[in-house]
C-alpha cells in the first residue's frame, strides 16, 4: 500500500482526524495562509464543478436564471431587518478603509487613516439585503413578477472554529432569491427548491435525506419558515445539507419593495431564498468514504474510470496504449469520463493505492497477458471487488457497473441511517441513546424553552420537523405536554 494510505487515521480510531487526513491526502483541499480559509485543490474543485453543473441545470429547468450581485453590503442595509442583523452580526467581516500607504518607518504598508469610509461595508455573509435593495428598482407591477434569480458566489462568515469544507470563514455556494406576487406562490417556490435539493442529494450525491421544517430556534435569521434537508454522517452526527427559506414580506417591507397588483392595489412582495454550499463536499466524504480513502458516487466523481497499464518494456507499453485508445473512445462515446495513467514515474501498485484513496469508482488494469487473452481487470471502489472480464463490450459492462455502484452507495447509506434511527419516548432514555449517535425520533412540546434545555443538557438539537414523518400525536419526552408529531433530534455539524 502507498505511504499515504498507511498514514490515514482509521474512522474507528478518530473520526475527526480521519476526515481531516482524507481531505488533505486525497488532494481535495488544504488550509490557507489566511486563518479559517481553505484552498480548494483541483481534484476537490472538480467535484464542486460537477455539483455546480448539475444543480445549475436543475435550477434552469425550474425557470431560474443566474445573476451576480455585489460582494460588499452597506452596513445600514443589515440594520433594516432586525432578526437578520441579529443572526449574522457576530460573523460579519467589516471593511472600514479603502487605501493603504507606505509606513513612514519603511517596514511595509499601513492603513491610511485618512481613507476611512463614510459608511462601513460588510463582506456578504448572505445577500438578502443587497438583493432586495436592488429588487426595489426592478419591481413596480405584478407584470414584473415573479423574479427567479440565482447567483453562484462566495460568502464570508467569520467562524472561530473551522474545518475544511464543513465550516470555513469563506466558502463557495449558490443562493437563490425570488420575488412573488402571492404568499402561496412563494411557499410553493420554497418547497419546490427543497425538492430540487433533496433530488440532487439522493440521485447524485447518493445521500439519503430527511425533508423537514426547522424549529424557531434553528430558523434562518429573517425567515418566516425554513425548510431543510438533513443527512446523517457515518459517525452518527447530522449535517444540514441545504435550506430553503420562506421569507414572507419581511425583506420587502424592510426595503419598501411594493407592486401594483391586478386589482390596482399596492402590495408588498413575497420572498424566498435558498442555498447549498461547498459543505456538500464534506457531506459526500463523511457519508460514504472508508479507511482506504474516498468513495465517490460515479455521477460526481471527477473521472469515473481510471485505466492503469502494466508493462515491462516500451514495446508492451505501446501495444497496451494502442488498445486502451480504443477502449477510451468507446467509454467516452457513451458519456463515461476516463483517465489513462501511463506515467512511468510510479509503479502500478502505487497508482492503484492513489486512485483508491481518491475514490475513483472503477479501475481498469491491463497487462501484456490481458492483451493476449482479450481480457481486462476491473475493480469497483465501493466494494473493492476485482474480477477479470473480456474486453469485448467493456464499455457497456462499465456503464452497468457505474449504475450499480451509484445505487449500492445510496443503499448502504440508507441502510446505515435506518439502523441508527429509533423512536425514544422518555428523557432518561434520550440521554442514553443520544450518546450512541443517529437520529432520535421524539415528541416535543413545541416550545423554544424545552428545545434549549435539551440542547444545553445533551448537545442535541432538533434537526427538523419532518414533512413526511409520523404525524401521530403524543407527549413531550421532557415536559409531558401534548406533542403534534415526532421530530428529529441529533447532534450535528
Tell me about this structure.
By secondary structure, the chain is of the alpha+beta class. The protein folds into three domains: 15-93 and 124-288, Bira Bifunctional Protein, Domain 2 (BirA Bifunctional Protein, domain 2, 2-Layer Sandwich); 305-404, Rossmann fold; 421-490, Translation Initiation Factor IF3, CATH 3.30.110. The chain has an eleven-stranded mixed beta sheet with strand order 3-9-10-16-13-12-11-24-27-23-22, with helices on both faces. A hairpin with a 5-residue loop joins strand 14 (258-260) and strand 15. Helix 3 packs across helix 7 (183-203). The radius of gyration is 26 Å and the shape is globular. The model has no long low-confidence stretch (mean pLDDT 96).
SSE blueprint and pairings:
Elements: H1 3-6, H2 15-25, E1 29-31, E2 38-40, H3 42-61, E3 65-66, E4 72-74, H4 75-78, H5 82-88, E5 93-97, E6 100-102, E7 109-111, E8 116-123, H6 128-138, E9 147-156, E10 170-180, H7 183-203, E11 209-213, E12 225-232, E13 238-248, H8 250-254, E14 258-260, E15 266-268, E16 270-277, H9 279-288, E17 305-310, H10 314-333, E18 338-340, H11 348-357, E19 362-367, H12 368-373, E20 375-380, E21 386-390, H13 394-419, E22 421-423, H14 427-433, E23 439-443, H15 448-458, E24 461-466, E25 474-475, E26 482-483, E27 486-490
Parallel strand pairs: 3-9, 17-18, 17-19, 22-23
Antiparallel strand pairs: 1-2, 4-8, 5-8, 6-7, 9-10, 10-16, 11-12, 11-24, 12-13, 13-16, 14-15, 19-20, 20-21, 23-27, 24-27, 25-26
Amino acid at each position: 500500500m502507498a505511504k499515504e494510505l498507511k498514514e490515514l487515521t482509521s474512522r474507528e480510531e478518530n473520526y475527526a482526524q480521519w476526515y481531516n487526513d482524507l481531505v488533505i491526502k486525497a488532494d481535495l483541499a488544504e488550509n490557507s495562509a489566511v486563518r479559517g480559509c481553505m484552498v480548494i485543490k483541483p481534484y476537490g474543485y472538480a467535484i464542486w464543478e460537477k455539483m455546480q453543473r448539475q444543480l445549475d441545470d436543475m435550477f434552469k429547468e425550474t425557470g431560474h436564471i443566474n445573476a451576480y450581485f455585489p460582494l460588499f453590503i452597506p452596513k445600514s442595509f443589515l440594520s433594516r431587518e432586525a432578526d437578520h442583523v441579529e443572526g449574522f452580526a457576530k460573523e460579519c467581516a467589516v471593511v472600514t478603509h479603502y487605501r493603504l500607504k507606505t509606513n513612514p518607518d519603511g517596514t511595509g504598508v499601513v492603513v491610511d487613516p485618512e481613507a476611512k469610509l463614510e459608511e462601513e461595508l460588510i463582506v456578504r455573509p448572505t445577500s438578502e439585503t443587497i438583493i432586495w435593495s436592488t429588487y426595489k428598482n426592478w419591481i413596480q407591477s405584478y407584470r414584473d413578477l415573479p423574479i427567479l434569480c440565482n447567483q453562484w458566489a462566495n460568502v464570508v462568515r467569520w467562524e472561530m472554529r473551522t474545518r475544511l469544507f464543513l465550516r470555513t470563514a469563506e466558502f463557495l455556494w449558490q443562493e437563490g432569491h425570488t420575488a412573488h406576487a402571492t404568499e402561496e406562490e412563494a411557499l410553493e417556490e420554497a418547497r419546490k427548491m427543497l425538492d430540487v435539493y433533496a433530488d440532487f442529494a439522493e440521485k447524485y450525491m447518493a445521500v439519503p435525506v430527511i425533508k423537514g421544517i426547522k424549529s424557531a430556534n434553528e430558523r434562518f435569521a429573517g425567515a418566516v419558515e425554513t425548510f431543510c434537508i438533513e443527512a446523517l454522517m457515518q459517525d452518527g452526527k447530522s449535517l444540514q445539507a441545504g435550506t430553503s427559506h420562506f421569507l414572507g414580506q419581511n425583506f420587502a417591507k424592510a426595503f419598501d419593495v411594493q407592486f401594483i397588483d391586478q386589482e390596482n392595489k399596492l402590495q408588498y412582495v413575497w420572498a424566498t431564498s435558498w442555498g447549498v454550499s461547498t459543505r456538500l463536499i464534506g457531506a459526500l466524504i463523511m457519508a460514504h468514504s472508508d479507511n482506504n480513502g474516498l468513495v465517490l458516487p460515479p455521477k460526481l466523481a471527477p473521472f469515473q474510470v481510471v485505466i492503469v497499464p502494466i508493462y515491462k518494456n516500451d514495446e508492451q507499453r505501446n501495444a497496451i496504449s494502442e488498445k486502451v485508445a480504443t477502449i477510451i473512445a468507446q467509454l467516452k462515446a457513451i458519456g463515461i469520463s476516463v483517465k489513462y495513467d501511463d506515467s512511468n514515474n510510479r509503479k502500478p501498485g502505487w497508482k492503484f493505492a492513489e486512485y483508491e484513496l481518491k475514490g475513483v469508482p472503477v479501475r481498469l488494469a491491463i497487462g501484456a497477458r490481458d492483451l493476449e487473452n482479450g481480457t481486462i481487470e476491473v475493480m469497483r471502489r465501493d466494494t473493492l471487488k476485482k474480477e477479470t472480464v473480456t474486453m469485448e463490450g467493456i464499455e457497456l459492462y462499465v456503464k452497468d457497473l457505474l449504475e450499480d455502484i451509484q445505487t449500492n452507495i445510496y443503499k448502504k447509506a440508507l441502510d446505515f441511517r435506518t439502523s441508527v434511527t429509533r423512536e425514544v419516548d422518555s428523557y432518561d432514555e434520550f440521554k442514553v441513546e443520544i450518546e450512541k449517535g443517529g437520529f432520535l425520533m421524539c415528541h416535543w412540546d413545541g416550545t423554544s424553552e424545552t428545545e434549549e434545555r435539551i440542547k444545553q443538557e445533551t448537545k442535541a438539537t432538533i434537526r427538523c420537523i419532518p414533512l413526511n414523518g409520523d404525524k401521530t400525536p403524543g407527549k413531550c419526552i421532557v415536559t409531558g405536554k401534548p406533542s403534534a408529531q415526532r421530530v428529529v433530534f441529533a447532534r450535528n455539524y
